[in-house]
Amino acid sequence: MQLNSKAHRNSGPIQIAALIAAVFASGMCFGQTEADSVEAPPDFGGAQVELRSSIGVDTFGTLDGDIQDMKQLLLELNRDLFLLEEELLFPANTQVAVFVSMDVGDFFDLDSVQIKLNDKDVSNYLYTTREVDALISGGVHQVFLGNLKAGEHELIAIFTGEGPHAREYRRGASLVFEKGIGPKYIELTISDREQALQPEFVVREWE
């Protein structure tokens, strides 16, 4: 009886310890199950990066378009200012312009053109190879723009370059013209005189 009573007294703490262990184990399982049941929040990082990237591309595209429009506007404004300045400095009533053109150019390689108006030097232009090629291709170069009062005037043009047989060549041509009301345009033409195998220099007024 004493043994049974002692065993009974010892079994109480053992049962309590077992019960606490069971409750603790069930709590661990419950916590694990609850943690497993919680879903992770959706990941929008990639979408946000992609959205920001799309917004950045659109913004830069808009800025680039605005910059190009501004450049075009500045070019047009600069052209208008140049034309206005030309009109103010060289009014149509007193304006005189001299142009240079070339035809073929086999017998003369142009270096420079000197312009004199009423025995006064007004222009001395040195041409580059590219500019000469442009003239031979049909281009026209404005070599002088100035003002003259109404009346009679004399223009002398002196052409310097390389002539036939690679010789230094210097020739002059002149024109006496009447300046009236309105602009006056004069053309200096360099052409080949094939029969004489020599260049020809002509000064004429534009009608």
Explain what the structure shows:
The chain has helices spanning 2-37, 45-89, 129-136, and strands spanning 95-102, 109-117, 120-126, 140-147, 151-162, 168-179, 184-193, 198-205. With 207 residues, it is of the alpha+beta class. It has a domain at 95-205: Immunoglobulin-like (Sandwich). A hairpin with a 5-residue loop joins strand 5 (151-162) and strand 6 (168-179). The termini are far apart. The model is unreliable at 1-14 and 26-38 (pLDDT under 50).
Write down how many β-strands occur, each being a DSSP E stretch of 2 or more residues: 8
CATH topology of the domain at 95-205: Immunoglobulin-like
Give the CATH level 1 class of the domain at 95-205.
Mainly Beta
Q: Uncertain segments of ≥5 residues (pLDDT<50)?
A: 1-14, 26-38
For the termini, the CA-CA separation is 150 Å
CATH architectural type of the domain at 95-205: Sandwich
Order of helices and strands: HHEEEHEEEEE
Helical amount = 40-55%
Structural class: alpha+beta
Q: What shape does the CA trace take?
A: flat
Summarize the structure.
43% of the residues lie in helices and 36% in strands. It is α+β, with helices and mostly antiparallel strands and 207 residues long.
